[in-house]
Amino acid sequence: MTPALIPPPLSLYVHLPWCVRKCPYCDFNSHAGKGALPFDDYVDALVRDLEHDLPLVWGRTVHSVFFGGGTPSLFPPEAIDRILQAASARLRFAPDAEITLEANPGTAEHGRFDGYRAAGVNRISFGIQSFDDGCLQRLGRIHDSVEAAAAVKLAQDAGFDNLNLDLMYALPGQDLAMAAHDLERAFALQPAHISHYQLTLEPNTVFFARPPQGIPDEDDAWDIQEHCQALLAQAGYGHYETSAYARPGRQCAHNLNYWRYGDYLGIGAGAHGKITLGAEQAILRRWKHKHPATWMAAAGTEGAIGGDDRIDPARRAFEYMLNAMRLQEGFALADFEVRTGLSRDSLAPALAHAREREWLAVSDSHVVPTALGRRFANDVIGLFL
Hints:
The protein has 385 residues and is of the alpha/beta class. The chain is 37% helix and 24% strand. Strands 9-10-8-7-6-5-4-1-11 form a nine-stranded mixed β-sheet, sandwiched between helices. Strands 12-13-14 form a three-stranded antiparallel β-sheet, with no helix packed on it.
């Protein structure tokens, strides 16, 4: 008998698209702000966008909210407050909902974090990337290392104790000692969470078109990764996802929901959502038009939708594994069934193959990637295509 699709936990993603200037490695939907930004008009459009999509999620509870960008910290606290007031008036928020705002240290100023905290934000994610001023300049960042540390302290002084610091490694001109020093600087600030990921040259970026000099080769990047993983473990940060490390109990609830194939409503220019429709036994992916002006003009109508894609059952196992294989914990076979509407038996041939290669440890109830499987994650995921 085919398992029934049961709607999983729901998150809300809010895209705020502007930044001071676009970084040369960034392939996100971000736009350098020119002149005064239309914060009020954008918030009005977000509310219309949310109201249009509400029928997809009637009666469901939001467990996390994530303001991503762009640079969400360009938006004043009053705008963030309006968004959260409007969302919580239209959706049921869990009492302990995690509400994250991404912040650029270059936009931090005194009093701003107090405002975000008063608005209901309870987690800040700082795009630090490095504490080396030379690396920051080569990455095109608008802040230096002193401003980075000062921004974190401002947030802590405002009462935030749930902070993430984003750091990149294998940067142009970076060696192992420099990458390790970045982590030592991060540890000194005592964040709850560190995201530590390798610089990649993504299509449609300046770095892809004109690769910078001095990027460490694959062997050196691997050495940096292994060394830094050991430093993170020694400092008490548990490695729970490919590039995410947390103090006990401080994993990012929003990102965990993505990786566990949970649902998320996406509002704002270029926002993506995934919604399980229980009554229809269907999974819908919806994305909004990318350009802020185009999206704002159409928000609240069908015209704001860039596309809808119903994920047919044949694609769901691959989609599920693409996310679940990022997690050290792996996944429960029972969760796979209710989140995909597929029988666990459909995985049997691929699981057997992965087990033979010692990529996955498989029990009657759980599947967990081995250290080898994590190293060859793309090959493991490819088995489920």
